[in-house]
Amino acid sequence: MSNEDYGYDYDYLFKIVLIGDSGVGKSNLLSRFTTDEFNVNSKSTIGVEFATRTIEVEGKKVKAQIWDTAGQERYRAITSAYYRGAVGALIVYDISKSSSYENCNHWLAELRENADENVAVGLIGNKSDLAHLRAVPTDEAKNYAQENQMLFTETSALNAENVDLAFRELITAIYQMVSKNQVDLSEKSGGGTMPRGPTISLTPASNEKTKKSNNCC
Amino acid sequence: MTITIDDLFQVTNIVTLVARSLTPRDYLCFQRLNKSLYDDYLQGYSDLEYWDMKLVSMGLVESDAVVDEMDSGVEECDALTIFDRIKGFQKFNAKEVYKKFHRCFWSFIMKLYEGDLDGVFAAAAGCEDPVTRVELLRQIRRFNRCNRCSYELYVQVEEHLEELQERFLEELLVELGGIFDERDYKSGVKIVDAYVALGEQATLVEYVKKKIEYTESSLVRYTGIFDLDECQLDQESVRTIFKSFCSFLNEKIEVVDVMFADNLSVMVPYCESFFEEVVVPFIAERLEGEFVSNFPQMRSEYGTWNFSAPRKYTVEYLPDVYGILVDVFRSELRDSINGGPNFVDIVIENIHVLLQPLIVDEYLLKIEEVFKTQLADEFTHYNEETAKKQEERNGQIYETLRNKIGGTELMNEKNNFLSSFTRILQKKNTNGIGSSATAEEELKLMYDFNKLNDNLKNLQSLVSVDLCYKAIQRSETIIADICKLSAMRRLPAKAPAAKVEDLAPCLKAACQRVFKLLIQEMSVRHIKPGFEKAVHVLQNYNPQDINRLTSGAAAAAAAPTDPLIKFIELINIGDIILQMISIFFRDKLIAKKIVDKNKDFLNELIQTKKNFEMMLDDFVAEGLNIGINKLMDEILFVFNSNQLPEDFNPDPSTVKNREIKPSKCATMIVELLSNHFFLLTGATDKGTIDVFQQEVGERFFNEVVKNIKKNIISTDGAIFLICDLNYYYDFIANKLKQKQIIPLFAGLKTVGQIFLVSNKDSKELGKMICDVGKFQGIFTQEEIYEFVQRRADWSRVRKDVERVMYGLAVSDCIIM
């Protein structure tokens, strides 16, 4: 089927990036959310992978286009290319590996530097199934998230615990920002996208807003 | 000086020599002739020598140890017993001993000398019994040996003795005839004994053979053993005839056993000549020639001299006839005292030996000839039929197309046709020929296209598993038949089987020739032309032609390359045939020891089989090679016709609306690949499959590289390229699972990144290019440099990139 055929099946398209150290489980979180699969033998991601899932938020179909990036990417130019146009991000760490938690600061800084300033961010403590090996206390991470205006969830891609919730919370937060016109949807940001066709008549406001901000630049 | 007799007699030797050549009566006269002669030469020692010589020449032993039996009733001795009683003598007594013998035999000697043959037996009292008479003759002959010195007497007696014996034997035979006439076989025993005593067995056996001879007509009431209408062997009548042979022999066994017991080997030689003169000629005569009258009719009825058609030569039934023969004799022939404990086995062995010329010179030659004809006929017929059908179909295609053009078909069908017809027209217009094209030419084009399609559909019918199966089955039957002729040897080693030993290798060789014939004819007449045609069709196939003519280019591109699929089906067929042959070879030829795998590894047969396998392998390799080329052509065609410039270099205003997913081109290509990658699975060995998949994978990789280099990729479009590359990687890594080629596609994934980088980061882009390790070690820096030139903003970033790469940019250079 051609691209055009898909033009009408969603109201919003959000780009979300998954970032975090190599091996914290980003790819499995993504596959759990988009296809409800978990791959025990998953290898580290080369370059960038994509997956989408459409969910309904307040009666609107929101298509999440999620970029799963290689955790060990050494080139800033590439990471900044990943962030370009993202309206949401999930910073993922492994609750059994404190270094991956400590690196979250670095990932957050990189995100703030490269992405839109209004980008919605969620902090994910993955591998909650490894509670007996826990190295990062939940409260500490929760406080850290609050301090930096991040959503926070502990998940397990292995047994699917909270995965859906974490993505939904982030997507809802983005949606709310978009619907309150808090996110600039101009071409400059290039992120949350309004498709052509019926969407225009359904959400004329946001479309107008886009045009306005376009004019501003 | 004259020499007188007296002078001669002065010499001792001459006197004694003369004396020794005299008969006893003359010798005694000679002694009395002259006193001085007697005193000087003929008394004492010389005299003893004379008698001594006589006794020794009769076989008596001169010895001091011999007890003198002279007094113990020797007077009662007669000619029959004296040699048993007196076996030796003492020299001093020689004359006395001789006297005893002389008394017993001289009257017989005189009768024989004088030719009074009738008087001999008459003179011997109590000598009516044939064996006794034989004995008497024997003893007379022994005595006569002492007359050798009197040559004339000796020869005369010998001659008459001979004559007498002959006359006596003749009389015996006359008597024997009477015995046979009266079936009083018990009385024959004494005559047999007489013959045995005389050592004249051969004459007797000959006579008995003649006496118990039969006439064929008395035995064989049924002359025909075939149902000529059906060209079938009438097994029941064959059985009946052999049973009559067998019961005839059984009667003879009874007679011979009574007369001869185990005295004289009569039955075995009798059976030998019976089989040689009667049974084998009977079989040979019946199995001579063809079912002539039926042959042409059959051939036209069956259209071909095929495997299931009736037999051509009567001799083809030899194994059946032989089987019945052996079966009948094994179950019905009675044991014979005269024939010995292995009688039945010897008889059967003998049949085998006697049939050998028929087997070797007739049966094996004919069976090979027929099989060769059948193979040729079947395969030629198949080829003709296939060609005819193809022609018919081609004709139908033409008719259908013409009718459609003539508007006789339903409107919508016509419209469908016309729409594709229009496409041809358009295509031709773009090629600059179409404007003047007439409808006839278009029809021709459509016809060729449909014909090609149909040829492809029927590619696998070029080689028929069914036909090859039948051919193998036929050869199996023939080999089984041949083996029937050798399976009879159950005799212990001591049996006279020397002649039979020669037949086993001969039969083995025949089996091998049949197998070789099978493989050769099958490969030359069927497999080779089939595969050659298939390779030819494959070679002439042009995917673009098909795509051009079919409605919906997308559907066509996604559909598997037809000839490759058909060819692979053909490979599958070839593999099945090869396996059938291997199983046949293993289960029949090796298992039955027709071929010894270890000993005969240089055997021509094994070589033939290997050549056959090699031929198939070569065709598979050639076909796959062509197939891969065609597949690559199609992939190239899809890239060229479906990878749109906007795919990787989109208009910035539309990019937001595009979902990130593989391009239409990429999905078509992956579908095309997945339709072909797994075709070989199950059709051939894993090694070939791996080579095929890796080859396709590597060449596909090269096509992707070329495709990237053909397109211009913008930063916005990079993500779509990455998506395509991810899609290819996913297919190779997760579906195909050919580990060796996965790194190539992982390398491509990282290549996608260099297009994603913003032109603001051009310096870092330069660093990335220098970092060869970044691209999984698949590409050299030069190659990456070639890729990066495909960036839409290359002119803007070039300077920075080159400066990082080379320390300075080309544009920095100033010609001094």
From TrEMBL, chain A:
Region (Disordered): 186-217
GO-annotated biological processes: early endosome to Golgi transport; exocytosis
GO cellular component: cytosol; endosome; Golgi membrane
Entry keyword set: GTP-binding, Lipoprotein, Membrane, Nucleotide-binding, Prenylation
GO molecular function per UniProt: GTP binding; GTPase activity
Membrane topology summary: Lipid-anchor
UniProt subcellular location: Golgi apparatus membrane
Homology family: Belongs to the small GTPase superfamily. Rab family.
NCBIfam families recorded: small_GTP (TIGR00231)
Protein name as it appears in the record: GTP-binding protein YPT31/YPT8
Organism this protein belongs to: Eremothecium cymbalariae (strain CBS 270.75 / DBVPG 7215 / KCTC 17166 / NRRL Y-17582) (Yeast)
UniProtKB/TrEMBL annotation, chain B:
An example Gene Ontology biological process: Golgi to plasma membrane transport
One GO CC term, this protein: exocyst
Residue ranges of every copy of the Exocyst complex component Sec10-like alpha-helical bundle domain listed in the record: 184-801
Pfam family name, one: Sec10_HB
InterPro entries, per the entry: Sec10-like, Sec10_HB
Organism listed in the record: Eremothecium cymbalariae (strain CBS 270.75 / DBVPG 7215 / KCTC 17166 / NRRL Y-17582)
Listed name of the protein: Exocyst complex component Sec10-like alpha-helical bundle domain-containing protein
Entries under PANTHER family matching the protein: RECYCLIN-1 (PTHR12100:SF1), SEC10 (PTHR12100)
